[in-house]
Amino acid sequence: MPEGDTVFRTARSLNAALAGDIITLSDIRVPAFATVDLTGRTVDDVVARGKHLLLHAGDLTVHSHLKMEGAWHLYRHGTSWQRPAFQARIILETADWVAVGFELGVLEVVPTVEEHTVVGHLGPDLLGPDWNADAADTAVANLMARPDVPVAVALADQRNLAGLGNVFVNELCFLRGIRPQRPMSEVPDAAGIVALAHRLITVNAERSARTTTGVDRNGQRLWVYGRGGKPCRRCGTRIQHGQLGRTELEQRETWWCPRCQT
C-alpha cells in the first residue's frame, strides 16, 4: 500500500533517472490535461511531499497521488511494461528512460507558482528535508487542536502531519499501547507518537519491504495491520477489527489488540 515511505522512494528513483534531462515525449492520458505537452522541457527535480509526488519542469508541476492502486515505473527504451498500457495515465520519455504513471489516483499539471493549491494544506512532512524540532512541535499542536478526534483519525489526517497511511497509523497505535478509537484528549504523550512516527517511517524509507516489528520475513513484518482474528504477537489475544473515520464516507479499516492497547 503506497504510504509516505513508498512515495519517498518513488520520488528518489524518478529524480535519479530524470532530473537534468530533457523530456523527448510527453503523453498525458487524463482528459483535462491531455493537451499539455511537456516535450522539450527539462526535468528540474522530482520530490515527495507527504504522499504526494511533484515533478518540476520549468514553470509547470506534474502533481500525482498514488492513492490505493497507483505506481510510477521506470523502463529502458524497448523493454516490456509490467502493467497493461490501458492503466497508464502519463508517459514521459527522456533519452535514457521511459517513466510511466499507472492508475494514479490524482494526476494534474499546475503552474509551479500555484503548487500550494494542491499541497499547501498538508501538515509537516515526516520525511521532508525541513523536518526538525519546530516541525514536530507543529505536528503535535495540529493533532491536539481537535481533542475529540480519535487518535487513528488524527494521525491519518494529512493536514496534521503528512506521510502516514493506514498501515503506519494502526501500527503506531499498537506500539504506543493506545486503541485507535481513543480520543486525542486521552492520549498521554502526543509528542512521543510523533517522534515514533518519524523514526518508523524514516527507517522504512530505506527498505523495500515495510516492517514495524523489526522482523523482515513474510507474514511477520507487522503487529496488527490486516491481522484480524489472529493472535497478538505480544500477548496472544485475538486481534480485533473495525472501521473508523472522519465521516461515514471516509471509514478506514482498523486493527488493535484489546489487551495490549488501552
Structure notes:
The protein has 262 residues and is an alpha+beta fold. 24% of the residues lie in helices and 21% in strands. It has helices spanning 4-18, 116-119, 133-144, 151-156, 166-175, 190-204, and strands spanning 25-28, 45-49, 52-57, 60-65, 71-76, 88-93, 97-102, 106-111, 240-244, 252-256. Strands 1-6-7-5 form a four-stranded antiparallel β-sheet, covered by helices on one side. The radius of gyration is 20 Å and the shape is globular. The mean pLDDT is 96.
List the helices and strands and how they pair.
Elements: H1 4-18, E1 25-28, E2 45-49, E3 52-57, E4 60-65, E5 71-76, E6 88-93, E7 97-102, E8 106-111, H2 116-119, H3 133-144, H4 151-156, H5 166-175, H6 190-204, E9 240-244, E10 252-256
Antiparallel strand pairs: 1-6, 2-3, 3-4, 4-8, 5-7, 6-7, 9-10
Cofactor: Zn(2+)
Domain FPG-type: 223-262
Family: Belongs to the FPG family.
Notable traits:
262 residues; four-stranded antiparallel β-sheet; 6 helices; 10 strands; 24% helix
